[in-house]
Amino acid sequence: MAMKVKEVADLTGISVRTLHHYDEIGLLHPEETTGAGYRLYSDRNLEMLQQILFFRELGFPLKKIKDIVTNPSFDRLESLTLHRKMMLEKRNRIEQMLATIDKTIQHAKGEIAMTRKEKFEGFDFSHNPYEQEARARWGNEAVEESNATLQGLSKEEQKVMGDRMNDIYIHLASLRHVLPDSGAAQAAIKEWYDFLNSGVVGHHYSLEAFKGLGQMYVDDERFTKNIDKFGEGLALFMRDAMAAFADSNKES
């Protein structure tokens, strides 16, 4: 049975205005709009709305959500599985921080003693476990440039950069079942190439280095595991897409 917009708002806890906005921007069109202008939402609409709200909970911007859910290769079940993994990671980080807060409160009351190390458990400043491999592969100069650039960014700038990286990974994950040398795949991998060479990581990747980086995504299981969190097989897809991009853009 179809639901009116006010009923959907009451059910989900989001506002009627928000639902209208989702309709206006093409993110969630109701199944039907009556002659009197009433929006009617089907069960299929509610499933999509749930998906959208999961993305919102994880901090995705509306434009990116629209790009993902309207992509012909979008797989709802696969996306839900990814959401679960990401939320479990988020929960684990929160639980670690809560444990540190609880211990700190007890320490402040004189109930327990905390070591210096314990006071900072749960904080994550994106330590890069692959730095040694990067140094060996691309040289110390490239790594030092990248580190210096990252350290010079504010926390907000680092967050923006992290969000942009996630957006690119998510977009690539949505395309990983198409041919790596297809137009869509190559346009998406160019975004990754342009991002790496935009100055935010402090180093310029030649086409050959870009191709080699893609190979490392597959050769090093830690890279593979990290990248495949966005979708199984993504690392392999990126390697092939990066190789195709490098080969097709070489100067003749």
Automatic annotation (TrEMBL):
Q: What domain of life?
A: Bacteria
The GO molecular function terms of this record are: DNA binding; DNA-binding transcription factor activity
Q: Which CDD domains match?
A: HTH_TipAL-Mta
Alphabetized UniProt keyword annotations? Activator, DNA-binding, Transcription, Transcription regulation
Q: Cite the Pfam families for this sequence.
A: MerR_1, TipAS
Domain (HTH merR-type) ranges = 2-71
User: What is the protein name given in its UniProt record?
Assistant: MerR family transcriptional regulator
Q: Which organism is it from?
A: Paenibacillus roseus
